[in-house]
Amino acid sequence: MFKRVLLKLSGEFLANDNGFGINPETTAKLARRIVQALDGTDVELAVVIGGGNLWRGARNGQGMDAATADYIGMLGTVMNAMALQDAMESAGKPTRVMTAIQMAAVAEPYIRRRAMRHLEKGRVVILGGGNGAPFFTTDTTSTLRALELGADVVLMAKNKVDGVYDSDPRKNPDAQLIKDITHLQVVEQRLEVMDATALTLCMDKGLPIVVFDIFQEGNLERLFRGERVGTLIKS
Ligand code: UDP
């Protein structure tokens, strides 16, 4: 049974059908799914939200200064964090948005001990602004914050992919789902889980990762209740 978990959501989970923007209805559905899954559990939840639905530093910022492009990406994640907060609170769950880049008019600054206090009080902490540093992704934010907040696990939510496969299931119909694997095997086999910096940090610190399909009914409920879902990566 997990006590404290860090859930990584891609920005695309909030997007319109074309993968861009923030769709309030889509966001509301996702928020309800998370709030319902938490209901009746003692799980403390921190969420890291990406920004790929609004901006991807390297891809959208071609020709721009790379660091500036990444800062734009980080600001995008704050927009997503605010949208998710609104939707989760409409679903009845108290939340706090905390940002790695200070913007006191819209959210609290990220302060580790304050974040832990919110978690202890049962508030969902939504972390915006990535690490606050360019040249990273929100995968690294998930690992970093999970480690410093003392989370038991990083839950890497995927859309219609129910875990890690031995080859790409979209290209190979015989691809097999892997239920248990070590961090080192993921690195050696170059399996797609999270970016390499984030993965090696998890490996170094022995932080378990679960890769699962958040859009499959019941998966989050089962995970929050300590059941096995998707792929478990551990040392
Ligand atoms: N980003 C960054 N530093 C961070 C986190 C994010 O510079 O610590 C920027 C980066 O440009 C990235 C963008 O924010 O492309 C959006 O984050 P990400 O690609 O991780 O979002 P996701 O794919 O999970 O939606």
From TrEMBL:
<feature type="binding site">
    <location>
        <position position="52"/>
    </location>
    <ligand>
        <name>ATP</name>
    </ligand>
</feature>
<feature type="binding site">
    <location>
        <position position="168"/>
    </location>
    <ligand>
        <name>ATP</name>
    </ligand>
</feature>
<comment type="subunit">
    <text>Homohexamer.</text>
</comment>
<keyword id="KW-0963">Cytoplasm</keyword>
<protein>
    <recommendedName>
        <fullName>Uridylate kinase</fullName>
        <ecNumber>2.7.4.22</ecNumber>
    </recommendedName>
</protein>
<feature type="binding site">
    <location>
        <position position="165"/>
    </location>
    <ligand>
        <name>ATP</name>
    </ligand>
</feature>
<comment type="function">
    <text>Catalyzes the reversible phosphorylation of UMP to UDP.</text>
</comment>
<dbReference type="InterPro" id="IPR015963">
    <property type="entry name" value="Uridylate_kinase_bac"/>
</dbReference>
<feature type="binding site">
    <location>
        <position position="56"/>
    </location>
    <ligand>
        <name>ATP</name>
    </ligand>
</feature>
<dbReference type="InterPro" id="IPR036393">
    <property type="entry name" value="AceGlu_kinase-like_sf"/>
</dbReference>
<feature type="binding site">
    <location>
        <position position="159"/>
    </location>
    <ligand>
        <name>ATP</name>
    </ligand>
</feature>
<feature type="binding site">
    <location>
        <position position="70"/>
    </location>
    <ligand>
        <name>UMP</name>
    </ligand>
</feature>
<dbReference type="GO" id="GO:0033862">
    <property type="term" value="F:UMP kinase activity"/>
</dbReference>
<comment type="pathway">
    <text>Pyrimidine metabolism; CTP biosynthesis via de novo pathway; UDP from UMP (UMPK route): step 1/1.</text>
</comment>
<feature type="binding site">
    <location>
        <position position="51"/>
    </location>
    <ligand>
        <name>UMP</name>
    </ligand>
</feature>
<dbReference type="InterPro" id="IPR011817">
    <property type="entry name" value="Uridylate_kinase"/>
</dbReference>
<keyword id="KW-0808">Transferase</keyword>
<dbReference type="InterPro" id="IPR001048">
    <property type="entry name" value="Asp/Glu/Uridylate_kinase"/>
</dbReference>
<keyword id="KW-0418">Kinase</keyword>
<keyword id="KW-0665">Pyrimidine biosynthesis</keyword>
<feature type="domain" description="Aspartate/glutamate/uridylate kinase">
    <location>
        <begin position="3"/>
        <end position="213"/>
    </location>
</feature>
<comment type="similarity">
    <text>Belongs to the UMP kinase family.</text>
</comment>
<keyword id="KW-0547">Nucleotide-binding</keyword>
<feature type="binding site">
    <location>
        <begin position="131"/>
        <end position="138"/>
    </location>
    <ligand>
        <name>UMP</name>
    </ligand>
</feature>
<feature type="binding site">
    <location>
        <begin position="8"/>
        <end position="11"/>
    </location>
    <ligand>
        <name>ATP</name>
    </ligand>
</feature>
<dbReference type="Pfam" id="PF00696">
    <property type="entry name" value="AA_kinase"/>
</dbReference>
<keyword id="KW-0067">ATP-binding</keyword>
